[in-house]
Amino acid sequence: MPEALMVTSSFLPGRGGIESYLSELCNLVAPRLAVLAPPERDGNPIPSGLRYPTHGLRSGSLLIPTRRVVRAIAELAARYETTKIVLGTPWPLGLLGPDLSAVGLNYVVIVHGAELLVPGAVPGLRRRMARAMAGADLLLPVSGYTGDVLRDLVEGSGLPAPPIERLHARVDLDRFHPEVETRSTRARLGLSSGDKVVLCFGRLVKRKGIHRLIEALPRIHKRVPGAVVVIAGTGPELGGLKRLADKTPGRVIFAGRVPDDEAPAFYALADVFALPVTDRYFGLEIEGLGVVLLEAAACATPCVTGRSGGTPEAVLDGRTGYVIDGGDVDALADKVFHLLDNPEAARAMGSAGREHVREAFSNDSLPTPFLAWLNDRLP
Fold first, then answer.
1. What are phi and psi of 47, to 5 degrees?
2. What is the pLDDT of residue 284?
3. Cis omega (within 30 of 0) on the bond before 31?
4. Looking at the 3D structure of the chain, how many domains does it have?
5. Fewer CB in a 10 Å sphere around the end CB: N or C, the chain?
6. In the chain, what is the straight-line distance between the N-terminal and C-terminal CA atoms, in Å?
7. Reduced to 3 states, what is the DSSP secondary structure of residue 248?
8. How does the average pLDDT of the chain come out, rounded?
9. Which residues is 241 bridged to in the sheet?
10. pLDDT of 300-318, one tens digit each?
11. Torsion-angle region of residue 18: left (phi > 0), alpha (psi -120 to 50) or beta?
C-alpha cells in the first residue's frame, strides 16, 4: 500500500519538464507513492499500467486550494492510512499547507522554479507562500538555484525554514541512450541521411525562446545547407511559430505532440539540441532546471541553451554544450554552427553530457531526509 500521496496539477500525460520529473520520481519510489491529479490533459487520460496508483480529481486543468480539494486529499489519505502528502508544485497547491496541517496531515513540497517566483513577487501572496513553505516538514528544490530562491522567500519573511534538500531530476539511462533506433522516426519526419538536425523539444511557450531558433536558422543554413530544425511539442505559441517558419528561409519541421515512448528516438537522431530559454518578467519566470536538456544529454546529444535559473547545472558550459544569452540570436547561430561543423567536438561534448547525467542525475538514491520522512524518521 502507498505510504504517501502526491498531489499535483502537472502530471502525465503532460510532456513538460515538471510532468517528466514527477513521473520519474514516482517510478523511482514505486509503489510507495499514490498520485492525485487532474484525470486528463488535452483530452488524454492519465496512462494506465503505471507502477503506482493514480486518482483523478476533476477541477479543471489546475487543482486549486479549495475546501473541496482539501477534503479529497484527506479522504484519499485516510483510505491509504497515511498522513504524508507530497505537493508536486508550490503554486497554487502550496497554499494548502496550513489547511493540510489543520486536518492532521504532514506535507513536503517539491519546488521547480517559476511557479515560486511569480506569486512570491506579490506582497500578500509572498507572505502566504512563505508561511506555507515554512510549515512543511521538508522542502525539495530541483536545483541549487531554486533552493536559494526558496530560502530567501522563507527566511526573508522572518520565518524559520524547514530542512531544504535538493532533489535533482532523475533520468533513466537505460531508456535515454544514443543507440536508440531512429530510422523509423527519421523516415516519418522526412529526414534524409544528409540532414543535420537541430532539435527543440518541450512545451511551446514564449520563455523557451523557440522563435529565436527559427530566426537563427537562415544564418545556420547559410553555412550548413543541410541544417533542419525539428520542433517537438505543443503549446500556445504553435500558431505563431508556424507563421514565423513560413516566412523564414530554411526548413522547419513541426513534429507535434510526441508520445512518451518515442521521445528517446527524437533526442538520439538530433545532431544538436537547442533550448534558448530566457528569463521573463524581470526574472520572475525562469527555467528551474531543464529536464529536456538532461534527456538530450543522456542520448549523447550536445546542447545549446540559454542562461536561466538552473540551466547551467544541466549544461556545463564548454564541456557538455554551451550556455549563452538566450536572447542573442547571433550567439545561438554561432554555437549551433560550431557543433554542426565540428562533429568530433560535438561527439566529445555529447559523451561528456551523458557522463554528467550519469554522475549527477541518474543516481537511484534519494536524499536521506526525504527517505527518512517516508520512513517516519525525520527528526
1. -60, 150
2. 64
3. yes
4. 2
5. C
6. 24
7. coil
8. 93
9. none
10. 999 999 999 999 999 999 9
11. alpha
C-alpha distances in Å from residue 105, one per residue of 78, 80, 379:
10, 13, 16
Are residues 325 and 288 both part of a single domain? yes
Give the pLDDT mean for 161-168: 92
Confidence of residue 233 (pLDDT cuts 50, 70, 90): very high
Name the one residue in this structure whose C-alpha cell is 499535483.
Answer: 8
Peptide bond into 264 cis (omega under 30): no
Q: Which of 366, 379, 287, 295 is nearest to 86 (CA)?
A: 366
Q: How far apart are CA 71 and CA 55, in angstroms?
A: 14
> What domain range is 356 assigned to?
183-360
pTM equals 0.86
- Nearest residue to 288 (alpha-carbon basis) of 89, 112, 90: 112
Query: What's residue 283's pLDDT?
Result: 66
In this prediction, residue 377 has a pLDDT band, given cuts at 50, 70 and 90, of low
- Mean pLDDT confidence for 262-287: 91
Instruction: Give the integer Cα–Cα distance in Å for 363 and 34.
Output: 22
CATH of the domain at 103: 3.40.50.2000
Residue 379 inside a domain? The answer is no
Q: Are residues 162 and 217 in the same domain?
A: no
- Give pLDDT tens digits for 4-19: 999 999 999 887 788 9
Q: How far apart are CA 258 and CA 167, in angstroms?
A: 26
Single out the residue of 140, 142, 201, 196 nearest to residue 176, CA to CA.
201
β-partners of residue 275 are 305
Unique residue bearing C-alpha cell 549523447:
300
Sign of CA dihedral 6, 7, 8, 11: positive
Q: Are residues 274 and 343 in the same domain?
A: yes
- What whole-number distance in Å separates Cα of residue 127 and Cα of residue 286? 21
- Per the DSSP assignment, residues forming a β-bridge with 107 are 85
Q: How confident is the model at residue 256 (pLDDT cuts 50, 70, 90)?
A: very high
Do the beta carbons of residue 166 and residue 143 sit within 8 Å?
Answer: yes
The strand pair at 40-41 and 44-45 is best described as antiparallel
Instruction: Answer whether 329's CB lies under 8 Å from 216's CB.
Output: yes
Question: Is 176 a member of any domain?
Answer: no
